[in-house]
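Example record

The entry below shows one chain as it appears in the dataset: sequence first, then structure tokens.
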Amino acid sequence: MALRGGGAVRVLPGALSGALGRPQAVAAPPGAVGGLRGVLWDFSWKIQLKSSSTLPVSLTEKKSSMLPVKGPLRTSHSSVDSQEVKKFQLLAHKWWDEEGEYSALHSMNDIRVPFIRDTLLSMSSNYHLGNPLSGVKILDVGCGGGLLSEPLGRLGASVTGIDPLEDNIRTADRHKSFDPVLAKRIQYKSSSLEEIVEESMETFDVIVASEVVEHVADLETFIRCCSQVLKPEGSIFITTINKTQLSYVLGIVVAEKIMGIVPEGTHEWEKFVPPEELEHLLESNGFSVKTVNGMLYNPLLGSWSWTESMSLNYAVHAVKSGAWGQSGPTDPPSETDIQQHSATAGTAGTASDITV
């Protein structure tokens, strides 16, 4: 589930809240805009001076620059939060409005889709021209209206999107029906993650949970179920929001209460997840965390970029039990390696061809 962007994802409060290569507009110098917008522009301008246009680097090279506010792990019998479901039900028909409440999720595809694609390509040489993810079975948890499922399907993957809200699934099904190719590659189910575990044990090569974990009721159960349905050496990709004072101010106060970038009540700061907590849960459930990197949303430009700071939004890639060798974590591919893979994969793998 998500807000202000779309797909099992919530609006990224991180920066007032997935294509590498999308041109970044040149920010105006500080002071060029007055009032509150000027303050926000100045903040975004300063942070983007430290931003990276490359893929996230290895975990060993990255550490958060701001200490998170810690809290106890959340546990219950189900990961589905009925109150969160109700929030998104009112917006279920707006997933594909690129200028609406989910606009930030639409633009997030510009960095999250290449991140997923290029990381997977770097781990295997069995890619296909025009369909680089052909043969890869992906589970999109909290798929919402299908904003992330569809671009992954266009890259050749076989995608299963699940969401506990039936209205979201109806919207996703209706939208994919306009493309005969996607209709064959993507299937949607109105279901929680726990409900498909028994029938899908070690079924998927990849799990994506983008802008979802900050909305679940039981994060520990959620991660455990992800491990159960993922094949050995499979990958999980997560994007979410850090739990810091800055994420409260920008993600809740400014984004929801002042600027209305996201409907008020979309996020609960208490449910934001510090990277350290997420890494601990992943590692205790058989995952090796490979990459953690900050993400920044510029509300004035409507665009996302990678950044060194993880004080707002961040992305994680982890591998289940031993992929990339048994001796321990290894660094992800270099930007040069990824560019070579992308070039070989054909034009369908370029950022400009990933549309939603």
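Notes for this example: The longest strand covers residues 230-241. The beta strands are 51-52, 137-141, 158-163, 186-190, 204-210, 230-241, 287-298, 303-307, 313-320.
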